[in-house]
Design goal:
With 220 residues, this protein is an alpha/beta fold. It is built from 9 helices and 6 strands. Helix content is 42%, strand content 11%.
Length: 220
């Protein structure tokens, strides 16, 4: 007997959830600060901003910088990130998980703090073609935790909040789900301490991609 599917639309964060990029993002923020000779945030502060749009992220990571200097900081961040982006990869098991969900005929989407160009660069990889049905980025709608990304994706696919699941590695992701009225799942192997997820009531916290895969196939 075929089990009834619980969610029609599953939206994933990108960095730190599907893509093993947390350490590079932190290092790129810190190196950008060194380049323009401003205070360098520690690892925890730099990691906290992952998932936000770039301007929001930099304003949190480096508070008090004159507004006209944030574009300079952003340019140096992009320089460092792009210089090493080729070293990054999906977490082990991610492709198998996504393919299994596609076989179950879920709509799959990405909701990310990356910009559209950055996301399209990675989604253009041959191994990912055809796996995602839609995506939203921070430069084309509101940044997390505003619910607009999820609201637009739900409208695009005609899916109700109760039939939509948001998966992410930060409180920004899970708070966006709360704000959109959708259930969520947290992953502990990204940017934020999973204990900070508890007040946001995720259905599950996965400590590996394998755990996430198994939970989704059994409960999604």
């Amino acid at each position: 007997m075929t089990r009834t599917r619980r969610f029609d639309l599953i939206a994933f964060d990108w960095d730190g959830t599907l893509f093993d990029s947390t350490a590079l993002i932190v290092r790129s923020i810190q190196n950008a600060c060194r380049d323009i000779q401003v205070a360098v945030p520690d690892d925890q502060r730099a990691a906290y901003v992952i998932g936000l749009g770039l301007r929001d992220a930099l304003e949190y990571a480096v508070p008090g910088l004159p507004p006209e200097r944030y574009p300079e900081l952003g340019a140096r961040y992009r320089h460092h990130y792009l210089a090493s982006q080729h070293e990054l990869s999906l977490f082990t098991g991610t492709l198998q998980m996504l393919r299994a969900l596609k076989e179950r005929q879920h709509f799959l989407a990405v909701a990310t703090g990356k910009n559209r160009r950055g996301l399209d660069d990675v989604l253009g990889l041959t191994e990912l073609r055809g796996l995602f049905d839609g995506s939203r980025t921070a430069d084309e709608t509101f940044s997390k935790p505003h619910p607009r990304m999820l609201q637009e994706l739900m409208a695009e696919f005609g899916v109700d909040p109760t039939r939509t699941l948001m998966i992410g590695d930060t409180t920004h992701d899970l708070q966006m789900a709360v704000n959109a009225g959708t259930p969520s799942v947290g992953v502990s192997f990204g940017a934020h301490d999973h204990e900070s997820f508890v007040p946001l009531s995720p259905l599950f916290i996965a400590h590996s991609t394998r755990e996430l895969h198994d939970w989704l196939l059994n409960h999604g």
